[in-house]
Structures are given as structure tokens and as C-alpha cells.
Structure prediction request, 180 residues.
Amino acid sequence: MGKRKNSETMKYLVLTAILSAMVYVLTSFVKIPTHQGYIHVGDGIIYLAASLLPLPYAMLTGAIGAGLSDYLSGYPMWVLPTVIIKALSVAAFSSAGQHIICKRNIIALAPAVICCIGGYYLAAVMLYGDWGAALLDIPTNAIQSAASIALFVFLGFSLDKMSFKRRFLSAPKSVTKKEQ
Prediction:
């Protein structure tokens, strides 16, 4: 592997770790308890990761941060559904381009929300065996999604304003054509 590839991989791994930690903190410590769990804004960071990182790294960010939060918060039965749901929810986003907030990433919020609400509904049905009781989680999951979208849009616009992707995720200027 060339120097540029190593540098790029390291940059993605470091950003994955930082964003995973942010997902964990915003999911575990900034939350509102509900009848079966809690509402949090950690998904906003998962959407941000999906707009900054290539797909495998974004999937890891959501799976690690949210999965760890479920496990350490006393909800171990939710770890597997969470890992699957959060990893799949980032699939429609794009990290290509110079902006976080772009048409594709705004549109990607719809399948991400459907994946989260529908995924947790199906997981609740499987865990509890009661279709009706699982319906009670839909409004709280919708509120969680709306709050996470607001956080994503706020952070995305803020980072776009400071040209975050161009300044921090572009190839180093010292890399020559020969090294690529």
C-alpha cells in the first residue's frame, strides 16, 4: 500500500473511532427515558458519519457506537438488532462530493428513518412476540428520528460552512502524482 492509501485509511479509522464515541455518548448519556427504552440523538452522528466516511466505515460507526450503548446501558437483547439496523440505515447516504448537506443525503434521511422505525418495530415483535405492543414504540422512534435529523442538519451545515470535508478529508497536499 502506498503512503497516500495508508494515510487515507488511518484518517478514516480515526474518524470512525471519534464518531463511534460520539454516537455512544449521545445515545447513552443524552437521552429521555420511555416506556421500553429511551429517545436519543445518536442517530444524528450516524447520519453524519454516513456523509463523511465510505460505507464500511459509516456502518461500523453506527454498529459500534449504538451497539455498545445498548449493551452498556442494560439492553443487551437489543444489541444485535441495533447493530443490523444502524449498519443498514447508512446505505443510502453518500460521502462523495465536498458537502455533507446535499440533495442525496437529505433524500437518504427517508430510507434511514424507515429502516430505523421499521427495523425496531420488527425487532420488538420478535423479542416480545406482540405486534400490538410493538406499535407503541413507533411514535417514540419517530420523535427520536426527527431529533436526530435536526442534529444532523445542524452539524452538517456547520461543518460545510467551515469546509470540513475539503480541509480534513482531502488528499494531503504533499502527495505527488508519482506517489499516487
In short: The first strand starts at residue 31 and ends at 33. Strands lie at 31-33, 38-40. The chain has a mean pLDDT of 92.
